[in-house]
Amino acid sequence: MSLELAMISPHTPRICHEDKVGDFQKPMVEAMKRTADMIEAAQPDVLVIVSCHWMSSFDHYVDATARHQGILTAFECPDIISDVPYDHPGLPELAREMAERGTARGLRVKAVDDPTYVWDYGTVVPLRYLIRNTQLPVIDLSVCWSASLEETQIWGQVIGEVLAAAPVRAVFVSSGALAHNLVRIPQNWPNITEQALDREFCNHLVKGDLTSAEAMLPSYARAAGLESGGRHVAMLLGVLDGALGGEVTGVLHGYGPSSGSGNPVLTLHPKSGTRVAV
Fold it and tell me: How far apart are CA 39 and CA 49, in angstroms?
């Protein structure tokens, strides 16, 4: 039916528990809450999220489990994220359709249906802010480290085409930072060059200039050390192309630091009347 909204969202561990969020990250959290209003207003039937912390080696994975239920203690930071419960329905039919279409396109994509699989914090943390209706179905996606940015963008196009053809209203979330050269001081920003590159890339998205964003991404990913090598962003660009023909406009709601990383809260919307014919 349609992609109603897409976004880039932070998932930094220190925002997992709202009552423990430091002052330097509170504006970022407030921006996420505003996007939750937008997601709620869009009345989606499914939220699809790619997480930089579901790092797959050789294949693109799609979580096709009917119910995502578990308790997360993060391997990277068990002192910060420990015993965090989550419980969301899935949408297995749509998840399997994505995997089948990706395979048909010649990509290495596999659907995973395993209720014992525990979500990562790149999935759990943003959903704690973005979803008020916990009965909204969620489909989780991995980033594949053997896949190039180009391949990942093609996979994103497939996902976008599936969402455009499906009888659902969808939201797509790219969970991850931009500049990501980490340091041990939580409140540190990226350096001035990395921040400038983050701003330039976000400006391209806000203006709906996806051609420039796509051209910039490979060198930008190297220069700023983008999280997951920029794969989560490449997938987002592909989704916007496949679902909306790249006809989008954006809003940057916030941008905050986390241990030297740059974390935008940025939403992307179809231009008025824009839909891909299917």
Answer: 13
Cβ–Cβ contacts within 10 Å for residue 103, how many?
Answer: 15
Indicate the SS3 state at residue 153: helix
Residues 13 and 74: beta-carbon distance below 8 Å: yes
| Sign of the torsion formed by the C-alpha atoms of 94, 123, 36 and 195 | negative
H-helix or E-strand spanning residue 264:
strand 261-270
* pLDDT value of residue 23: 98
CB of 2 closer than 8 Å to CB of 162: no
Do β-strands 138-144 and 46-56 pair in parallel, antiparallel, or remain unpaired? parallel
pLDDT tens digits for 64-113? 999 999 999 999 999 999 999 999 999 999 999 999 999 999 999 999 99
Q: Say yes or no to pLDDT of 277 above 80.
A: no
Which residues are registered as beta bridge partners of 63? 112
- 3-class SS at 115? coil
Q: Is 262 helix (H, G, I), strand (E, B) or coil?
A: strand
In this predicted structure, what is the pLDDT of residue 274? 52
Whether the full predicted model's pTM is greater than 0.90, yes or no, is yes
Nearest of 7, 8, 12 to residue 188 by alpha carbon: 12
How many angstroms separate the CA atoms of 70 and 73, rounded? 10
Domains defined for the chain, CATH in brackets: 2-270 (3.40.830.10)
- Rounded Cα gap, residues 59 and 52, in angstroms: 14
